[in-house]
Each structure stands twice: as C-alpha cells, then as structure tokens.
Design brief:
Number of domains: 2
Strand content: 5-15%
Largest sheet: 3 strands, mixed
Radius of gyration: 51 Å
Structural class: alpha+beta
Oligomer: single chain
CATH topology of the largest domain: Alpha-Beta Plaits
Strand order of the largest sheet: 3-4-5
C-alpha cells in the first residue's frame, strides 16, 4: 500500500504543479475550457431528456454503474490505507535488547531443512509474522511411494524443531503441512508396501558345562587276620 500511496501522491502533485501555475498566469483559457466542458455536459443532458423512456433509462443505469465503480475504488483505497501493515520480523524469544528475525530468513531456513528429508522433492514454506510469534505453513511435494501421513508428521516435526529450537521463535499455532504426492509413472504398477519385519530375537547361548568335582575312590587295604596259636589241649586232641 505504501507504493500505491506514493504513486497517487506523485501524480496529484505533478497535476497540481502544472495546472495551478497555468491557471494563475492565464486564467482565461482555463475558465473557457471549463465552460466548454460544462456546455457539452448540459447539451448531453438536454438530449437525453428529450429522448424516449428507453434511452433515459439506459443513460440512468450507465450513470449508476459509473458512480458505483468510483465509490468502490475509493472505498478500496480507504480500506487499504486503514489496514494494519503486516509485520516482516518476528521477535526472538529470550534475546536481550528486542532482537528480531526477518520472515524471509525464516522461510529460507525452513526450505533448506525440510528439503533434506528423504522423499521430499519440492518445498514451499509460508511464514506469517504475528509480531511476537510466527505462523508457518509448509507446502511439500513428495515422491509417489511415500507414506503420506508419516511424511506429513515428519515434515511438521522438522519445521517445529527449526522454528522453536534452531531459530528461537514462538509458533502461533501448530505447523500446517500440505502434501502433494507425485503420480506414478504410466505403465509402472504401484509398489506394494513391504511387510513389517518381525523383531529378531537374540539366540540363547548355552551355558558352559560346569565342572563336576569327583572324589577319587578310597583305597582299601586288606585287613590283617589275627591267628591264634594252638594251645596244648588242641595238640593233644589232634594226636
């Protein structure tokens, strides 16, 4: 709106700079020109008044349309003038001295980091400054074989991390992500999702055999046999 204001003001100043000095120096031609214009308008009105009802109604509708267009143009200019201009910077949280970051810089950071996500082909971030916070919208194009919900959540997580942690800004609301998946090439069947892999359980390792303590068999020695020497009575009996 500043550019429009400057253009309008410059044109008005140029017109006044030309007309006013001429009217002061030679007012006769200016007045004569105005009178001629008024005479033409008067003759036109008289001709319409003498015409039929159809011509009068058509001329009246034409004047209404012209007046409505002029009113809408001036109303639009007034609304643009009263509208609060959009902020181009965002306050950095926790920074001393009221530091701020340009919205263009935020958009470039988001585009760089989101573009590093596998499967993302094109990124177009939109950053809307709210003064102390920022609103972020991400438009991303992906390949045909990506899982859209998973990829959208990944893009949202990366954008949130970049804004809040890397840049130190505050989000006005959750990051809005719009995903456009590229179509499959003609003649190529869509790839089926790979089946979920079952978790591989680690093989159990057999415990090493424990050493069994063996007790050596006890050595047995023959017991001595006690012999009784023959007595005299036994000798006599044998004899």
């Amino acid at each position: 709106m500043n550019a429009v204001n400057r253009i309008v003001i410059v044109l008005l100043l140029i017109g006044l700079a030309i007309i006013v000095p001429v009217a002061v120096i030679v007012p006769g031609p200016i007045i004569a020109g105005l009178q001629s214009g008024l005479a033409v308008i008067t003759d036109s009105l008289m001709a319409v008044a003498l015409a039929g009802d159809v011509e009068q109604m058509a001329f009246f509708l034409m004047r209404v349309v012209i007046a409505a267009l002029i009113f809408l143009i001036f109303l639009l200019l007034i609304l643009l003038e009263l509208r609060r201009p959009r902020a181009r910077t965002v306050a950095i949280q926790g920074a001393e001295g009221g530091a701020a970051l340009m919205a263009d810089s935020i958009a470039s950071h988001l585009a760089y980091h989101v573009d590093q996500i596998p499967g993302v082909i094109k990124v177009k971030p939109r950053v809307i400054s709210k003064g102390k916070s920022v609103r972020v919208e991400i438009y991303a194009e992906t390949g045909p074989q990506v899982e859209v919900p998973t990829k959208a959540q990944e893009v949202r997580s990366v954008a949130t991390e970049v804004v809040e942690q890397k840049l130190g800004l505050k989000l006005d609301r959750e990051v809005k992500v719009t995903i456009k998946a590229a179509p499959y090439p003609k003649g190529l069947p869509p790839a089926r999702p790979a089946p979920a892999r079952q978790p591989v359980r680690p093989a159990r390792v057999a415990a090493p055999p424990q050493a069994v303590e063996t007790t050596p068999p006890a050595t047995t020695f023959p017991q001595p046999v006690e012999t009784t020497p023959p007595t005299e009575e036994t000798t006599a009996d044998e004899g």
